[in-house]
């Protein structure tokens, strides 16, 4: 009966694992011609996992969640919320990918399979309540990501991006594993509950070093300063659909495990890590804003934008309260929509030869030649800048509100001031698209999937998106409260 319960509560990972193995066999026997069929089946598998996760989240019988697999895995509202975001983001990235790779004749069935296994790893990460489970999920997700980054075999930039991501990712994994070993050595447990109990009387010097190394390893995964160096190169070099994936689903998983690690096993010693998080938050906001100003490549600019936005999200973690955690999840949900929309818009920038266009010069005067695309990009950029009445403003508002309520007024003030710097490069999009002479190199995009994803993203971040905020607040509050339920 115990195993049946374990299989049921970890149903999304079980279902996606089985689907991934079946689709891997299909791909092996059917070859490249099965790519679109495998993609459609992968999307169905992700939809099924998302639906099952929604049922677990809303089912009152599981309101307090449950620990299964002998205390290695926890099904709770927090993990369920993160998984829903991960699955939705992965679906969005999958349905826009075939058209991009078909133009180069490079779309293969292993692409959606890698996405599925990446989603399995991310699901394990956000539900892990033991350091061993966390590491297994992290490596499963990372291995898929390394291959995806270098997916375009004939593109030197893609191969370089994959190699850089692999080398720096291996370094970060080593740092994280060393931190875990120190935590285990000084607490005698790899279980989150055991670690929290062992640290109840305070952190020893050795355990503090372990906490620092663990947070440093996770800072690489979320691309927080000073462990952000891989982000611009990987975002620029990887194929745009892969970059869209990196900016959404793995970002959700990385932020979620950072939250769970900080607030669960180390939650009783918040004073020991708050200063680290505050530094990473402010440094990420400033470096992300200043680094983006001089960029001409749009993908590199959005890479620095992601670093900047991670800084705002970390302000919520620095607060170390349920309100701060809820604000983080609200911002994260809105950020996923904005990131997905922005990268889909970049995919639609191509010339008559089918080549991707990635610079400001290419979108010069875009409002005259492709007005709908230009207006969608304008809305997304203004939302990323946090300009009202777009929904991105609400994400920043709840973060700063949580900081002020926790008497961190100076932190909120510095964050608000730094956000003004970031508005410069977002407004640059508007200046180039609406006021410069038309380059007239962007041709019309006929992909219905891309237009649907872009239209939905633009609609959600528009003022109409505020109609969703009551429901979003309820969902994020319930998810955040699960992190503060200590047995």
TrEMBL record:
<keyword id="KW-0830">Ubiquinone</keyword>
<keyword id="KW-1133">Transmembrane helix</keyword>
<comment type="similarity">
    <text>Belongs to the complex I subunit 2 family.</text>
</comment>
<feature type="transmembrane region" description="Helical">
    <location>
        <begin position="372"/>
        <end position="394"/>
    </location>
</feature>
<feature type="transmembrane region" description="Helical">
    <location>
        <begin position="329"/>
        <end position="349"/>
    </location>
</feature>
<feature type="transmembrane region" description="Helical">
    <location>
        <begin position="301"/>
        <end position="322"/>
    </location>
</feature>
<dbReference type="GO" id="GO:0050136">
    <property type="term" value="F:NADH dehydrogenase (quinone) (non-electrogenic) activity"/>
</dbReference>
<dbReference type="InterPro" id="IPR001750">
    <property type="entry name" value="ND/Mrp_TM"/>
</dbReference>
<keyword id="KW-0812">Transmembrane</keyword>
<keyword id="KW-0472">Membrane</keyword>
<dbReference type="GO" id="GO:0048038">
    <property type="term" value="F:quinone binding"/>
</dbReference>
<dbReference type="GO" id="GO:0042773">
    <property type="term" value="P:ATP synthesis coupled electron transport"/>
</dbReference>
<comment type="function">
    <text>NDH-1 shuttles electrons from NADH, via FMN and iron-sulfur (Fe-S) centers, to quinones in the respiratory chain. The immediate electron acceptor for the enzyme in this species is believed to be ubiquinone. Couples the redox reaction to proton translocation (for every two electrons transferred, four hydrogen ions are translocated across the cytoplasmic membrane), and thus conserves the redox energy in a proton gradient.</text>
</comment>
<feature type="transmembrane region" description="Helical">
    <location>
        <begin position="38"/>
        <end position="57"/>
    </location>
</feature>
<feature type="transmembrane region" description="Helical">
    <location>
        <begin position="113"/>
        <end position="138"/>
    </location>
</feature>
<feature type="transmembrane region" description="Helical">
    <location>
        <begin position="275"/>
        <end position="295"/>
    </location>
</feature>
<keyword id="KW-0874">Quinone</keyword>
<keyword id="KW-0560">Oxidoreductase</keyword>
<dbReference type="Pfam" id="PF00361">
    <property type="entry name" value="Proton_antipo_M"/>
</dbReference>
<protein>
    <recommendedName>
        <fullName>NADH-quinone oxidoreductase subunit N</fullName>
        <ecNumber>7.1.1.-</ecNumber>
    </recommendedName>
</protein>
<feature type="transmembrane region" description="Helical">
    <location>
        <begin position="449"/>
        <end position="468"/>
    </location>
</feature>
<feature type="transmembrane region" description="Helical">
    <location>
        <begin position="14"/>
        <end position="31"/>
    </location>
</feature>
<dbReference type="GO" id="GO:0012505">
    <property type="term" value="C:endomembrane system"/>
</dbReference>
<dbReference type="InterPro" id="IPR010096">
    <property type="entry name" value="NADH-Q_OxRdtase_suN/2"/>
</dbReference>
<keyword id="KW-1003">Cell membrane</keyword>
<dbReference type="GO" id="GO:0008137">
    <property type="term" value="F:NADH dehydrogenase (ubiquinone) activity"/>
</dbReference>
<feature type="domain" description="NADH:quinone oxidoreductase/Mrp antiporter transmembrane">
    <location>
        <begin position="128"/>
        <end position="422"/>
    </location>
</feature>
<dbReference type="GO" id="GO:0005886">
    <property type="term" value="C:plasma membrane"/>
</dbReference>
<feature type="transmembrane region" description="Helical">
    <location>
        <begin position="165"/>
        <end position="186"/>
    </location>
</feature>
<keyword id="KW-0813">Transport</keyword>
<keyword id="KW-1278">Translocase</keyword>
<feature type="transmembrane region" description="Helical">
    <location>
        <begin position="207"/>
        <end position="230"/>
    </location>
</feature>
<keyword id="KW-0520">NAD</keyword>
<feature type="transmembrane region" description="Helical">
    <location>
        <begin position="406"/>
        <end position="429"/>
    </location>
</feature>
<comment type="subunit">
    <text>NDH-1 is composed of 14 different subunits. Subunits NuoA, H, J, K, L, M, N constitute the membrane sector of the complex.</text>
</comment>
<feature type="transmembrane region" description="Helical">
    <location>
        <begin position="77"/>
        <end position="101"/>
    </location>
</feature>
